[in-house]
Write a structure and sequence with these properties.
With about 375 residues, this protein is of the alpha/beta class. Strand 1, helix 1 and strand 2 form a beta-alpha-beta unit. Helix 1 runs parallel beside helix 12. The longest helix is centred in the middle third of the chain and has 26 residues. The radius of gyration is 22 Å and the shape is globular. The protein binds flavin-adenine dinucleotide (FAD) and uridine-5'-diphosphate (UDP). Flavin-adenine dinucleotide (FAD) binds next to helix 1 and helix 12. It comes from Acinetobacter bouvetii.
Length: about 375
Amino acid sequence: MNILIIGAGFAGSVVARELAEAGHQILAVDRREHIAGNAFDVKDQHGILIHQYGPHIFHTNSERIFNYLSKYTEWYQYEHRVRGVVDGKEYPFPINRDTLNQLYDLDLTEEQASEYFEKVREPKEKVLTSEDVVLNSVGRDLYEKFFLNYTKKQWGLDPSKLKAGVAARIPTRTNTDDRYFTDTYQAMPLHGYTVMFENILDHPNIKIQLSTEFTDILKSNLIFDHIVYTGPIDAFYEFKFGHLPYRSLRFEHEHLSSQEWYQSVGTVNYPNNYEYTRITEFKHLTGQMHSSTSIVREYPTADGDPYYPIPRDENEVLFKKYKALADAEERVTFVGRLAEYRYYNMDQVVGAALNAADKILVRK
Ligand code: FAD
Ligand code: UDP
């Protein structure tokens, strides 16, 4: 079969490789001038490897997905750590026992920390929203200090307007574990994401065309037996039911030439100050040694490239209308964070892409 793949991020590249291995001919196109989608990394003009579209830290509990990517990259072992700044001081985040002890000048044991949360939490019968999640686990003061304003800034919405799953990404801990993730596998591609994608796409049956719009291909005379679409689903259908909201970010990259390090950990979150949500210093993530350093600030915006689907019931209703059309397509597969309107992490996209490729292979 001749297969057209729209988008060379995780979804498109993994499907491309799987179908190419099965003997099909693939044309993968992306409107950007590079592969790797939002995981794209590149050396800046000072030689520091940066993530152009914000910090990407790989983590998964799936041995299958880790082994799959391990065919295309070696790894640098890295466990992400984050601090949240409240009233000018940095605290471990996600909230753990040290956060409580430092913030309230306490000396709680693990059991006492558990009792503390029990005392301050506002129990919810039904945990439906992101506000419910946080109040239900850590109560109002910690909610207001660490979550309320960050969430408003990130999404332009009050946490009560967002589904529970958004804030539920962040655990609460009674121990002193200050890692952002606790997944079994946590590592960064040793030579970067872009090199890993070059390896995934390096197959004689895969042709790549960059700086190319889906519509450019449709206008050509090329005939395809199947299309795999990984862009925003509403755009595929020319917004016939209206626009699905996606949240965007503006990335402000900065190089600091006269200092080796900027901050103590990979990412520092600023819930209550500034227009940006967080600052990431890349050398922490990549292990790169360099005499100077590069950072990125993330400014959430309503307009711009679509980065985040916005998990709300009303958006889900609109998505379902598009999904009904997508499900009825015989010759088009929709997969990935934008096409499935799911707040997927990278490993989840790899899993979805492997399943999508299997389905296409069974059907043909
Ligand atoms: P994308 O990477 O968006 O790829 C889709 C591609 O399709 C794009 O390159 C786009 O240019 C192309 N395209 C779209 N429409 C068209 C068209 N009409 N014509 C041609 N090309 C088109 N996940 C983690 O696991 N860990 C993290 O730490 C993490 N951090 C993140 C930080 C930020 C700031 C963001 C935004 C996301 C983060 N993610 C993280 C999520 C991760 O980026 C996604 O899960 C993953 O990259 C999605 O892959 P995808 O292929 O579905 O989509
Ligand atoms: N969050 C917050 N304060 C923080 C960090 C996260 O309120 O300091 C909330 C916020 O709503 C955010 C969500 O938790 O959108 C998920 O955070 P995560 O770090 O997983 O977001 P991502 O890396 O996907 O942008």
